[in-house]
Amino acid sequence: MSLQLYGYSKCNTCRDAIKSLRAKGYELKMIELFETPPSVKQLKAWIETSGLPIQKFFNVSGEVYRDMQLKDKLASMSDEEKLALLASNGRLIKRPIAFDEHNVTVGFKEAEYVEVWGK
C-alpha cells in the first residue's frame, strides 16, 4: 500500500504522521511542502475528495498566516483567491496532507488516521 504525503521533514507532527503510516504498512512518497506546494488543481481535488472546506487547509497557527493577517482577510476572499494563495506558498498549508486516490487527511490526529488509513 502506498500513499503520498505533503509535509515538512523537520516538522515533528509530520514525523509522527510518517511513523504512524509506516507502522500501518504504508510506503510513503514524501513531498516537501515548502519546496513544492500543491497546485490549485490538486487542492481542488483534495477538497472534493475530503469534503473539507478550504479553510481547513490553512495553517492557522503558522507565522506566514499571522503575518499576512489572513484571519481577518479570508472571509472576504473568493474560493479561487484562497486556492491561489494556498498554491503560492506551502507555508500557508496545514501539514501533513496524506492522500491516495480515495482519501485525504489534513493534519495529524491518530484517531483520524486509524479511521481513514486503518489500524
UniProtKB/TrEMBL annotation:
Entry's Gene3D superfamilies?
Glutaredoxin (3.40.30.10)
Pfam families from the entry?
A: ArsC
Q: Which InterPro entries does the record associate with it? A: Arsenate_reductase-like (IPR006660), Thioredoxin-like_sf (IPR036249), Tscrpt_reg_Spx/MgsR (IPR006504)
Q: Which PROSITE patterns match?
A: ARSC
- Name the family the entry cites: Belongs to the ArsC family.
* Name of this protein: Arsenate reductase family protein
Q: Which organism is it from?
A: Paenibacillus psychroresistens
